[in-house]
Amino acid sequence: MTEESITRISIRFTIENIGVAEGELVRHLAPRTVDALTKKLPFEGRIALWKEEVYFEIPVTMGDEKAKPEVEKGTIAYWPLGKALCVFYGESQPYSPVNIVGEVTENLQVFAEAKSGTRVKVEKV
Q1: How many helices (H) and strands (E) does the chain have?
Q2: Architecture of 3-124 per CATH?
């Protein structure tokens, strides 16, 4: 296993009837949260919307880990309050602090096309 595959885990988001986005989970950002997410992959959910963010409940329960009240466009984060994975595709900020776990590396714009209730699958690449 290469060092890159230990510290950065490539993932794919498949959004039903819309498209595919690629991303990376980055272990050093929130090691316990990234490990918990990685162990549960693949998982699916139904998208909910908050400003310029999509989020969906996932089968992971974690508390705050280096939680931040602000994020940058393209951030992938875990929201402890909602037990959800979040993708920030625009300039909005989280409802409450999130554990930043990675970033979208390709096709961020597909999240802007998602509607509430749309199915999304997350898996390792």
Answers
A1: 2, 9
A2: Beta Barrel (2.40)
